[in-house]
Design a protein that fits this description.
By secondary structure, the protein is an all-beta fold. The protein is built from no helices and eight strands. F-type ATPases have 2 components, CF(1) - the catalytic core - and CF(0) - the membrane proton channel. CF(1) has five subunits: alpha(3), beta(3), gamma(1), delta(1), epsilon(1). CF(0) has three main subunits: a, b and c.
Length: 81
């Protein structure tokens, strides 16, 4: 099964970089999940939690105050405040 490459950065540092099965993000119009082979997307994020499942099946979450996400070619880049 294909995986996503997820990178989460803040102005201070890189918070996560690695393979994940899926990532759920707090979009401005509601929460949404990105899976492998998802169509390209750019979206603003609002206050909430980023939830992701690592390649080994471990669920992780990260509280965010906002930011944006770009998905293209199974690469998910998240910049948070």
């Amino acid at each position: 099964m294909k995986k996503l490459q997820l990178t989460i950065v803040s102005p201070e540092k890189k918070l996560f970089q690695g393979e994940v099965n899926q990532v759920t993000l707090p979009g401005v119009m509601g929460s949404f999940t990105i899976l492998p082979q998802h169509a390209p997307i750019v979206s603003s994020l609002t206050r909430g939690k980023i939830l992701y499942v690592t390649a080994d099946g471990t669920s992780q979450n990260l509280e965010v105050m906002g930011g944006f996400v770009e998905m293209n070619d199974n690469n998910v880049s998240v910049c948070i405040n």
